[in-house]
Specification:
mainly beta; 11 strands; 11-stranded antiparallel sheet
């Protein structure tokens, strides 16, 4: 019998780090998605099953809290499990640990299952034979609930047009690319002195190649910021693509 919680090994390979020599946030995010996919595949509700049934998992929310990130050459593991199923959504949790047992951080995510024919979410509680309720493990991680605060800034701090390299296997802008956009609103001088302690992503509609994105940012406190990523229309309206709240901590010597 396959364990409900599975841990998947990774290594920080050269060119997976940022300029500080630690695993970059974009690569961490993609490995989080990879661990999610491997776990689902091992339990029979991954890409193979979903492709056959013309369905697919869509990330609705992601929260990651870390005290540090592994360096180039370090081995680490991402453990993941399904915490609960509720209506059209399911919560998946994560623990990121080093080969020496050090805990780098934890995460939570919320997913929806989309039927490609109707483009509507599937009620997970009504799947045949209970769906994958047998996998649920109601184990918690020490991650705070979503923060309050919204970005109401009127002028964008960054603009981006989605291109080929932004796209995932579904032809949408990769969910993790929006983390890059959020962090790119801060100059290098800020990143020299601060590390990301927590990042919250809430996803709206999908983005496609050629879409123009405007990224807005507001300071909620000295070290916490709200960001919204929108697709503007010619009539002045905007469609929310993603919202984020990112919390920084001062960079100490061990982390530099």
């Amino acid at each position: 019998m396959i364990e409900k919680k599975l841990a998947f090994p990774f290594r920080v390979e050269p060119f997976q780090e940022d300029y500080t020599g630690r695993l970059s946030w974009s690569n961490l995010g993609n490995q989080i998605l990879r661990a999610s996919s491997l776990h689902a595949e091992a339990h029979g509700f991954g890409h193979t099953y979903m492709k056959e049934h013309r369905q697919g998992w869509v990330l609705a929310r992601l929260i990651l809290e870390v005290s540090a990130l592994p360096r180039t050459g370090d081995d680490y593991a991402i453990a993941t499990w399904v915490k609960r199923i509720f209506g059209q959504f399911t919560d998946r949790l994560y623990t990121i640990s080093g080969a020496d047992g050090r805990i780098y951080g934890h995460g939570t995510s919320t997913w929806a299952l989309i039927d490609y024919a109707t483009r509507q979410p599937v009620n997970l509680e009504t799947l045949p034979d209970g769906g994958f309720t047998h996998v649920v493990l109601p184990e918690e991680v020490p991650v705070a609930r979503p923060s309050r605060g919204r970005c109401v800034a009127a002028e964008p701090v960054l603009k981006h047009t989605a291109v080929y390299s932004d796209l995932d296997i579904n032809g949408h802008v990769n969910s993790i690319r929006y983390i890059d956009m959020v962090l790119d609103t801060f100059p290098k001088a800020w990143h020299d002195r601060h590390r990301v302690a927590r990042i919250e992503m809430s996803y709206g509609l999908e983005g496609y190649c050629g879409d123009r994105f405007h990224i807005f940012r507001d300071a909620l406190s000295e070290h916490q910021f709200a960001v919204r990523i929108v697709r503007p229309a010619s009539d002045g309206s905007e469609t929310i693509i993603a919202r984020s709240i990112v919390t920084f901590a001062p960079m100490d010597e061990e982390q530099q």
